[in-house]
Amino acid sequence: MSDPQHEQPAQLEPMPDDWRRALAVVAHPDDLEYGCSAAVAAWTDAGREVAYVLATRGEAGIDTLEPARCGPLREREQRASAAVVGVSEVEFLDHEDGVVQYGPALRRDIAAAVRRHRPELLITLNHRDTWGGVAWNTPDHVAVGRATLDAAGDAGNRWIFPDLLDQGLQPWDGVRWVAVAGSSSPTHAVDAGPGLDRAVASLLEHRTYIEALTKEDPESYARALLTGYARAAGERFGGRPAVAFEVFSR
Ligand SMILES: [Zn+2]
């Protein structure tokens, strides 16, 4: 009899690729760079459009820097970081870092962004309570991840948030998948190989944040971290370095 504890985990499916536009919605500057941006680099290389929406400017993210100075700095770092992987549209929703509230106001802001960008693929970061096991997630990630999963439907319903119609934002019911990065239950993956160097360069643009976080050389830190994540995901993707997602189809 086989022991379920020692069975090989299921292999991850290749991500759907019959789409043209993706929108990534996350809580903080750097959320996409800690693991996801190698996939973004591969997508933009292939001629797909990817835009970023950030709920906050990450202004509460650096202990030694007061929010009024930190917010604009992290916004600049995020824009530079996005540019490295071919993303020129970066928007901020101005929710308050650290205390982002899940609820209609957040869902409405994200639904508005979905209607503006009209993506087939929505990307967000882990919406679950933990990263797996007992590694507790942060409330902002949970709130933004959940609200993004909800906003895929909200964006398509004209009677939810009718004031968006007054702003000229017509319903968009074209989101076909929401792909959650950093999930402990991934289902799909993207080959991280071609985009990995740019993913490292992209993470390095968050230099102020990284220098406050670690005494290590920033480049060695970024490369070791992203290579490690890609290798771990690759164990379930034929041994190729990978970016894993939990994909919710609609
Ligand atoms: Zn974050």
TrEMBL record:
Coiled coil: none
Keyword field: Zinc
Superkingdom classification of source: Bacteria
Pfam families in the cross-refs: PIG-L
Keyword flag Nucleus: no
SUPFAM superfamilies reported for this sequence: LmbE-like
InterPro entries, per the entry: GlcNAc_PI_deacetylase-related, LmbE-like_dom_sf
Protein name: PIG-L family deacetylase
Species per Swiss-Prot/TrEMBL record: Streptomyces akebiae
Lineage of origin: Bacteria, Bacillati, Actinomycetota, Actinomycetes, Kitasatosporales
